[in-house]
Amino acid sequence: MTTVITGASGHVGANLVRALIARGQPIRCLMHRSHRALDGLDAEVVRGDILDTDSLVDAFRGAATIYHLAARISLDAAEEPEVMRINVEGTRNVIAACRRAGVKRLVHFSSIHALDQEPFATPVDESRPRVTSHRCPPYDRSKAAAEELVRRAIADGLDAVIINPTAVLGPYDYQPSYIGEAILNMAQRRLPALVTGGFDWVDVRDVVAGAMVAAEKAPPGAAYLLSGHWVSMCDIAAMVAGLTGAAPPKFVCPLWLARASAPLIQGLSRLSHRRPLYTSVSLRALRSNRNISHARAARDLDYRPRPFKETLADTLDWFRANGNLPAVAGAVSGGRA
Question: Domains (ranges, CATH) in the chain?
């Protein structure tokens, strides 16, 4: 039977579509705007909108599994209304459409950001409470609220599983993503400064593999954290330098100073019509919990995230192949993208 993917043209979606096609599964991709990531693939593409339940029902008919990836990712607190509308109301509509279309299983992509990071001294696992405080960024609260809708639907009989990946990195990053853009800026010597702090980064291909196993084998109501490796921004810049020959920025800004400067940076970015990488939201993330456990996924899904440097090398290779990044003298190829 057909598998349907919302958000198929996004970073995770582009990798998931390719992995499912490689298995020979019939795929239907729900497309709202851009289809560049899907061009040339052996997949059915239909137009739809997660804010339009009727369009979802049409797209979901005859499907055994729905992967719900569509979401608004934002580092700007001012975008809260749009983030909530797409991430929360969109998920509500997906649940309703699954029921109306008779879908057998929903795989809902949530996020590490839906989980409370504190206390930092204790590893984060699936038992962590979901964020509720308005001190948390809108994106975090939206993913927590959407996840709660799915949990309520599960309690009411919907067959669904929940995936909580950490920060995703890897090939087929067409937009590119925020971290993809940061890596491109590092490789092209366009990042003026680094900040202290880091995050747990996971290969998009490992997330996709884990989600596919969960779709097939996980019991209804199961939730899985799919994490990778905590790496600092400074260490990432050093690795990019080793792989491309691009010297890392010399100035490293402490997080407290970066946070104080964030409103000015955001304002200047708006004036120049550029997407800011360092915002109060992204800087908050860079001081989050360093220990994200994927023990449950390792046990149930045989989940084993690959080394971070392999992911970074493959990402740079893909950016070169896609024309985002020219070949650089002295570059070291990863060769696996």
Answer: 2-175+200-229+290-305 (3.40.50.720)
Q: Can you give the chain as a three-state secondary structure string?
A: CEEEEECCCCHHHHHHHHHHHHCCCCEEEEECCCCHHHCCCCCEEEECCCCCHHHHHHHHCCEEEEEECCCCCCCCHHHHHHHHHHHHHHHHHHHHHHHHHCCCEEEEECCHHHECCCCCCCCECCCCCECCCCCCCHHHHHHHHHHHHHHHHHHCCCCEEEEEECEEECCCCCCCCHHHHHHHHHHCCCCCCEECCEEEEEEHHHHHHHHHHHHHHCCCCCEEEECCEEEEHHHHHHHHHHHHCCCCCCCEECHHHHHHHHHHHHHHHHHCCCCCCCCHHHHHHCCCCCCECCHHHHHHHCCCCCCHHHHHHHHHHHHHHCCCCCCCCCCCCCCCC
DSSP-derived pairing of the beta strands 229-232 and 198-203: antiparallel
User: In this structure, what are the phi and psi dihedrals at residue 138, rounded to the nearest 5 degrees?
Assistant: -55, -40
Residue 238 identity: A
- CA-CA distance, 162 to 314, in Å (whole number)? 27
User: Is-contact 7 70, C-beta < 8 A?
Assistant: yes
Please give the chain's pLDDT, 337 residues, in tens.
899 999 999 999 999 999 999 999 999 999 877 788 999 999 999 989 999 999 999 999 999 999 999 999 987 888 999 999 999 999 999 999 999 999 999 999 999 999 999 899 999 999 999 999 888 899 999 999 999 999 999 999 999 999 999 999 999 999 999 899 999 999 999 888 888 889 999 999 999 999 999 999 999 999 999 999 999 999 999 999 999 999 998 888 877 666 666 555 555 555 555 666 667 677 777 888 999 999 999 999 999 999 999 999 999 999 999 999 886 544 444 544 3
Q: Are 252 and 194 in contact (CB under 8 A)?
A: yes
Tell me the one-letter amino acid at 96: A
CB 115 within 8 A of CB 285: no
